[in-house]
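Researcher: Quick one. two chains, 227 residues in total.
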Amino acid sequence: GQQLNQSPQSMFIQEGEDVSMNCTSSSIFNTWLWYKQEPGEGPVLLIALYKAGELTSNGRLTAQFGITRKDSFLNISASIPSDVGIYFCAGQLGSGGSNYKLTFGKGTLLTVNP
Amino acid sequence: DGGITQSPKYLFRKEGQNVTLSCEQNLNHDAMYWYRQDPGQGLRLIYYSQIVNDFQKGDIAEGYSVSREKKESFPLTVTSAQKNPTAFYLCASSIVSLSDTQYFGPGTRLTVL
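Model:
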């Protein structure tokens, strides 16, 4: 089946630093999604990408859909303590039948030291 | 407020007992999903449903059962056949369209003693 490799597994940074994480896939996806999960809560959608090469921002967050459609990255600029959490990437092949199933990476645990 | 609710937040059961986790949404979404999350792991799909009275197995359906009698509700039963049921269970829903973004509920943590 499809697999997503998400890296790094964890990051420990100082407040104010920029953060970068990425996901790579063994196969093509038509949609890339980035979620953030805080302890004991469900994931919250941060950014959705629908087109190869697309670069989308949401406040201090920027994500890109790779040209090959096999990768995506998420950047967080000027990190703050409330950025702490687990960030997941997810890929979706497309609509129709089982193609809308999401495949998730294993997550990047972000810790921000004030 | 529109959203997805899961209850209870924490659930404890004895080994060998079946247990049903609730998931309700008032977003008028057609599709609903159940995922399982274990520490340090991504989310794994248990079951999904695109329409009322229809559902499909996901990647780890063994030991679980679901029903979809109403559009708003998609309960998950963890049966005694599930060998390692202790986990965090997440329900999600989406509009079935070209951009099927899934939105998640707050989760239920099940502990089997």
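The first strand of chain B starts at residue 4 and ends at 7.
Researcher: Thanks, that's what I needed.
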